[in-house]
Each structure stands twice: as C-alpha cells, then as structure tokens.
Amino acid sequence: ADSPSRSGVFQAKTDKRLEAFAESISFDRRMYHQDIRGSIAHADMLCSVGLLTPEEFSTIRDTLREIEAEIEADAFPIRLELEDIHMHIEQALIDRIGDVGRKLHTARSRNDQVSTDVRIWIREALDQVDARLADLQRAFLSRCDRDFDVILPAYTHLQRAQPVIAPHYWLAYVEKLQRDRGRVADCRKRLNECSLGVAAVAGTTLEIDREQTAKALEFDRPTANSLDTSSDRDFMLESAFVLSVIASHLSGWAEEWILWSTVEFDFIKLPQAFCTGSSIMPQKVNPDTLELTRGKSARVMGNLQTLMLLVKNLPLAYNRDLQEDKPPVFDSFDTVIASLELAIPIVEGSELRRESIASRLERGYLDATTLMEWMIRKGMPQRRAHHLVGAIVGEAMERDVPLSELPLEAMQMHAPEIDDSVFEILGSKNAVNAFVSYGSSAPAQVRSQVERWKSQLASS
Ligand code: ARG
C-alpha cells in the first residue's frame, strides 16, 4: 500500500480486507512524536543540501508541529486505508501544504523511516527502564540499614542452608539489577546508529548528508550498509532479550516474596495497598501484584520468542513481515515498566516479620557448615570434618535440639578434638559473624557493600 487512491501500476483498488489485515496504525500511532522528529531532521538536511528551500523547510517543519499538536490532543482522524502513522502524517502534510509536502519523502522510504522511528522510540524507552531499575535498586538499598540486624536463612534447593543477614538478600537483587542496567546500556549503544537515508534498500542517487541527520537525531553515526540496515532488527531482539532477563529477575523475586508472605514462611508482610481480597473467603489478603508480575513475565519471554521466529528466515532486505515486530516490543516495554513501577513501592513498603523469623531461625542447622569449617581451621581434612559434622547433626536431630544446645560430650563422642570454644561459632548469630570472605554475608563485608552502593546509586 503506497497511497490511498491507487494509481500508477495499479489498476485495481485495494481490497478492504487487505486494508484491515495490513494496517499498523492501531499500534504504531504511539510513534508519532518520533516520526515527526525524524521528518523535521530529514527536511532540515534536505534544505542543507539544496533539495528544499529554507522557506519550504520552515513550512514543512511548522506544519508537522501543528499536526503533532493535533495528534497529542487526539484531534487527528485515523483512516485505515492510510495504513500506518508515517502515511497518516505525510498525507496530513500534503493535504495542508500541497506540493511542498510532497517533497518531504525525497531520498527516504518508509523502510528507513520506520527503522529510525523505532530506534528513537526504543532508545527513550530504554532510558525509562534504566531509571526505574535504578529506583528499584534504591528501594532495596533503602531497606539495608533498617533490616541490618535481621538474620534470615539462605536456601539452596529451597532447603535451609546457611544464615545470612537481610541486607545480603537485598544487595543480591541490587547486583542483578545492575547487570540488567549494563545490558540496557549495551543495547542502547548498539542501536544508536541512524538508519535514515538508506532509503528503500540500496541508498539514493541524491546527494544527501546522512551525518547531519544522524547528529540531529542524537545518533552516534549513520549505519554503514543500506542492505543490512533495511533488514536489521537486532536492536529489537536485543531489547526484547534485555527485558526478558529483567522480567525473569522480577518473577523470581515475586515468587520468593509470595512464599515469604505465606503462613508457612511468615517472613514478610506485604503492603496491603498492593494486595487484594477474596470475594468468598473473608480472611484473605492475596499477593496479586507479585503473582501478576510473575505471570506477566511469561508474556515478555513469549515476545522474545515471537521476534526470533519473525526474523529467522528473512532474506535481505526489508520484508513486510517486519511490521509484526512492533506489538511484541511495545508490549514487553509496557509490561516491564509497569512491573518495575509496582515493584518499587512493594520493596519499600514491606515489613520483615522479625519475631516470626527469629522464632524458627535455629531450625534447619544453618550453622552446620560453620562447624565443619571450624574443624578445618583446627587442621582436620574437609572430607573428614564433613563426615563428622554429619554425624553430629544426626545426633542433634535425634535429640531434636539445635547444635548450640547439644552437650559438648555428645559432640566429642564423634570428634574428640572439639572443645568448648566451639560454642563461639554455633547458633545463627555466631555463624553469621564467623564469615570473613569477600562477598560473603559477614556483617563487615555487607556493610562495606552497602556503603559502596550508597555512593554508586546516589549519582545514578
Ligand atoms: N507499516 C509498515 C511497518 O510498520 C511500513 C512499512 C513500509 N514498507 C513497505 N515497503 N511497505 O513496517
């Protein structure tokens, strides 16, 4: 579809069914600002190289701004036969200023136009994602001081493993989100080349200045190969991937806090403003926001799959299949941004159930590994220490007591080398304080990591 009223090589009118099948205005309308910005930069460049007069350029620019204001005010009629936002805007321009408007599409095709618009749109969206990731990092960080004295079980295989302090948990998420931000920045860097001016597929015989357009639109440089550019959707795949990793981090966190909020765990109280009740069970406070965060992550991952399948068999260069790229990308951004915006107040507003956590902290032998390492420090080979502590834990289980309440003699029956200084490292609190390695849950280690993040996140 090149124009609403068919002519030229076409002798038949477009079938109405094709119009409805082929339109993209229903989802690409949201790129109107990027489209107009790109068109003004393009027209400015056409003027610099003598393809438009300064008067023609200012007429085009001013009319495009007028059209933009109307779209913003929702005073702009949508016509399916105009297919997409690009043709809607160009047609409106032509309707208003005639032949001058007909010059805008000089040395440009919708192929490079769409690619540029999407790049600008994604670039802005990535910046929004980054800002929200930073806010979520700050939300986790803000909990660190207030929860510093809380000891939680760390789990492997969802079985109690070793004791950690609560801020060690919070900073685990800060680290994951930092890698997400790294991926966002990396993706942004690679997409930041300007496709405008590759025209349909092979470039143009007109002497345009692609450097100028690239610079005006804040791209680092123009793309170097018109065939590649016309087909390239790597930046959409990459953003969908980056968003999938974020969604996976949010989903894992949501799952964890859903578990933690159950009667069975009773580790955390979620802010009620982000929970809902039941229509039949009066006592219920359900963690719907977290469940939906977990559930919606499936959409984000599915969108990545959709995009991979969309591009995998396409020969060079532009193929109309590529129109299908935008709904999944937009949906992934919308979903992840909304999920991040809800995660922030939940992280800030949840309360650890300190008494409940403490009341069961000495169940599960969180200090068994600490005891084993204490014996290693006394000179015992690790395999032997592991075996003996296993036997000691077995003994404690039989008596149904934590290690710190097992009599010294009972331990010595298994390992005569144990003396009563062992009680300095038994119990979750002692065990946490016994950590020393870099990156461990040693309070001094965690403290210095908290301070590092405070200064790092103060600026970004
Ligand atoms: N509406 C289309 C899209 O969103 C524009 C592509 C135009 N190119 C073409 N040769 N028909 O991708």
TrEMBL record:
Residues 9-302 form the Fumarate lyase N-terminal domain. One of its GO terms (molecular function) is argininosuccinate lyase activity. It comes from Novipirellula galeiformis. InterPro entries: Arg_succ_lyase_C, Argininosuccinate_lyase, Fumarase/histidase_N, Fumarate_lyase_CS, Fumarate_lyase_fam, Fumarate_lyase_N, L-Aspartase-like. Gene3D superfamilies: Fumarase/aspartase (C-terminal domain), Fumarase/aspartase (Central domain), Fumarase/aspartase (N-terminal domain). This is Argininosuccinate lyase. Residues 365-433 form the Argininosuccinate lyase C-terminal domain. It is found in: Cytoplasm. CDD domains: Argininosuccinate_lyase.
